[in-house]
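Q: What structure does this chain adopt?
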Amino acid sequence: MANIELTGVDEILNKLQEIGANVGRLENKALKNAAEPVLEDSKANVPVRTGKLKKGLKITNVKKKEEIKYILVGVDKGDNSEIFYGKFIEFGTSKRSAHPFLQPAYEKNKNTIKEIIAETLKEGLK
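A:
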C-alpha cells in the first residue's frame, strides 16, 4: 500500500475559511461601489428647485430578501419625508409630465454596474 503525505492542506483550508468570512463584506462593498455611478447621474439629472431632492438622494445600506442582496438608490422615506414628491417627478402625475432621473441613470450605467461588481469581487478575492 502506498503512503501519500500532503503538506499545506491546513494553510489552504485556513485561506478558504478566511475568504468565506470576507465574502459577505466583499459583496456589500461591490454593491455599494456599483451604485455610485447611478447616484451621481441621478443627482446630475434631477430637476432642482430648492435642492432638497438632489441632496436627499442616497444609496441605502445593503438589504437582503430571500437570500438575494440588493441596494437602492433614491430617497429614503424615513429620513426625508419632506421630499416624498420625488416619485411624482420621476413618474409624473395627471397634472405634471414625468421627468425621470433615476431610471435613465440606471439604464445608462447597467454595463458599468456589472463591470464594477466584477472588478470589486476580483480584487477582493486575490
